[in-house]
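REQUEST FORM: STRUCTURE PREDICTION
Request ID: SP-0412
Submitted by: Lab K.M.
Chain count: 1
Length (residues): 183
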Amino acid sequence: MPIDNQSPLVGKLVNLLWGFHDHTFKQLNDAGLARHATEIFCIRKGIVESIPSETVNDDAYLALVAKKRGWLIKYDAASNVSICGPQTFPDYFKQRRRVLFGHRQVRKLTGESPQHLIFLLPLYPVRVMKLILWGCKENGLLTFLTFLSIELGINAAATLDFIMGEAHTKWSISSSTKRIANY
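STATUS: Completed
RESULT:
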């Protein structure tokens, strides 16, 4: 659950992203296809002995290794986690680029793809089309297509980073995500 954003555009992107993630993970979980961890997760000790030091997305890495070893991955939609998403577009771009780079890295390290829309498309095209239709219905066609276009652009940048051997292991901090929330 994203904490309120100061920027209407970036706030819309952050809320749309996390709403789409939540809906996608619910659908995959209900179909018995979950194999991706989210912001907060628990894992039994000893399932994964170590995480390669260059790993950017440790959550995706741990979940995929656990799944490959026969463990069940469950998404608990009833759990609530509050996150402070990026407050500026440059921070949104930087954070998403790092995460999407990490997905490619996890795919290389494990031989399996995290459950991101780009990787789901060839595996489950009908399911992906239903997710996209849901996103359009929930957010409006123009808004959702704009969101997908921005995500595709960021995916392209992350793919280029991966091809060029860029390292995102030392994170460039998205400083606008570091505000303190009062509850």
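NOTES: The chain has a mean pLDDT of 82.
Reviewed by: T.R.
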